[in-house]
Amino acid sequence: MSGWQQNLIIAPILIPLLAGALLLFFDERQRVVKAMISVVSCLALVAIAVSLFRFASYGPERFEGVYMLGNWPAPFGIVLVVDRLSALMLVLASILAVPTLVYALARWHAAGAHFHSLFQFLLMGLNGAFLTGDLFNLFVFFEVMLAASYGLLMHGSGPMRVKAGLHYIAVNLAAALCFLIGVSAIYGSAGTLNMADLAVRIGEIEGDRRMLLEAGAAILGIVFLIKAGMWPLNFWLPAAYSAATAPVAGIFAIMSKVGIYVILRLSLLVFGQGESAGLGLNVLLYGGMATVAFGTIGVLASQALGRLASYSVLVSSGTLLAVLGLNNGMVTAGALFYMVSSTLTIAAFFLLIELVERGQDAGASVLAVTMEAYGDADEEEQEVEVGVTMPATIAVLGVCFAACGILLSGLPPLSGFVAKFAMMTGMIGSGVATDAPIPASVWWIVALLILSGLAALISMTRAGIRTFWASMEGTVPRVLVMEMAPVLLLIAMTLALTVQAGPAMRYMEETVNGLQHPATYIDAVINARRVGVEEPGGPEGGGGI
Amino acid sequence: MELVLAIGIGIMTGSGVWLLLRPRTYQVIIGLSLLSYAVNLFIFAVGGVKSNAAPVLGEGVDISTLTDPVPHALVLTAIVIGFATTALFLVVLLAARGLTGTDHVDGREQPK
């Protein structure tokens, strides 16, 4: 099958690229035009991601999800690959982009220059990283994404953001250099950068070359772990995420998942079987557990809501890493469900925090311990907002806040519970089925998962009481409908995920099943048919320089 | 030649890492630049060090006299991206200097 469906594969990269470039032609004052272009691009991305998701869910037998750029065959040319996992990530990125963009349109997009272009380029980098089939293009798309994120992080300026941005950029530049070292070590030992080709060749590599390859892969792994925020590589993350403006932090919720995506992809495709099987799984397991512990302590210790949300990102990443380290199919399917649920939750929470904190004076939001001392200070309204005060603002905010708390702590009835339940059933249930003793590490993970949920519950309750019940003298925050709707939409999506948990889990299980049998992926990439070429012969000539 | 290249990469990486860990923003950016030169040379070296060899495969050309063109392509891309991100970082450093009044990476001087 070829034709328009296959050409659709490159659209998630081209659309934001073109939209971002087009936006540069308009002056900053033409906000309506810029907003229109941006929204149209994001909606188009949702439509395309959903259709790719549907095609991918038919399975590789019916949809050949390989796009060869310039019609060059796979190991030589660049390929884009859509399978269930990349389609899932594309959908997640695009449905996260729409609410955050709408939220930004209410006021944040006017806080600095080129917000919309940077936002589109960030989406391009994200989509490219999910689609690419070779390691070097992964680097390129990572850099596109990061370069845009540098700009977005410092959107709105101010000493706090610039300071956090400085650390963030320094860490990520160093990580980019590690990326290059890892990629070139892999190329030097395996002679290929195409992931499918690498998976084929890894079986034939012996001795010193294998050691170089594994060292390269480990260096590459460190880069993705920095991105995912594994302890002790994550000290930049809380500062950066809590300093960013609300919509930016919302879309950043998926950026830490890019690292997880690549780790999942490479560990199952390249290091799924053979001599190097299970490379670094222990690092993931114990590092992930340490991250959960670190994040939990951070959640308990946070006074400001922004930091609480940032540490929740760490808990979410740590949970995913630890669970992926178990390398158990059922558990991984639950982890994918958890990834979708927690990304939506954290994004909603970041957006909500800014609305909630608007009602408080600056002192209260910085340090609750000293709140009493600050409480007597003048309660001046800091910024005069344009817009209507929603009559039930506090009620709606409170319900959303409670929903976020339930989702973060993994209590029933929302999807956070379903996700944690799925993971734990996979972990403990597998032992029951085979009558084998459950390893101690599994009990540790289960305990950490429950404790991190409890910590989230305690912190959220404490923050909620302080914000909604105790602040008698606080003013009702002025919230625009345009700002409330995205939060509600994100929470509604987690609700939909809860209701449709059955079909969603089946999709995740099929995804993991596909990942555990990489032969289909490899075959699809290596034997992809070229357009307009009858027989798979050699390349059509020397190629010009 | 391999030895010279390896020593060169090693010295640049060592200096780069040391400078990266220094507290002044100027030292950090010079450290990152040195590291990126070292990495570029490293990418160049993984294709095998050869002199006087063309990366173009033609009729009757012996494979052993051929140099691998892929690392060349990679290193070009890496140079471009590294250059752009370094320039961007420089702007951020200047902004931080302007906003905080110090060139310390933490935005404030350490207490003496």
Automatic annotation (TrEMBL), chain B:
Alphabetical UniProt keywords: Cell membrane, Membrane, Plasmid, Transmembrane, Transmembrane helix
Bilayer-crossing regions: 6-21, 28-49, 69-96
Main location (coarse class): membrane
Entry membrane topology: Multi-pass membrane protein
One Pfam family here: Oxidored_q2
Location in or out of the cell: Cell membrane
InterPro entries named in the record: CPA3_antiporter_subunitC, NUOK/Mnh_C1-like
NCBIfam families on file: PRK09094.1
Stated family: Belongs to the CPA3 antiporters (TC 2.A.63) subunit C family.
Record's protein name: Na+/H+ antiporter subunit C
